[in-house]
Amino acid sequence: MKSDAISYPPRGLSREEAARYVGVGSTLFDEMVGDGRMPKPKRINSRAVWDRVALDIAFTSLPDKDNGLQELLERSRSDGHQR
Questions:
Q1: Are the CB atoms for 29 and 18 separated by under 8 Å?
Q2: Which among 60, 63, 15, 11 is positioned nearest to 40, based on CA atoms?
Q3: Where are the chain's structural domains?
């Protein structure tokens, strides 16, 4: 195999790699795939392989943690308009 001076990140990830990539354990990752929060794998022969780009899209679609800040900002905006 010819050596390449450019390093490429893998596009296809195993289940364990995909779980680690999105920051969760394999069991939670399986649950997220099952309920549609994460994509289903592609099949390469008998292997299940997750597309890193599809994982990025799914991760971006996850809700942000509700820390109450958004509600406070919305409340302060509406209070300002009522004065």
A1: yes
A2: 15
A3: 12-81
DSSP string, 32-59: HHHTTSSPPPEEETTEEEEEHHHHHHHH
Which tokens belong to 57?
């899209």
The residue among 66 and 22 whose pLDDT is bigger is 22
Q: Which residue has the tokens 């920051």?
A: 23
pLDDT tens digits along 24-61:
999 999 999 999 999 999 999 999 999 999 999 999 99
Answer yes or no: pTM beyond 0.70. yes
Gyration radius of the chain over CA positions: 20
Residue 12's DSSP bridge partners are: 51
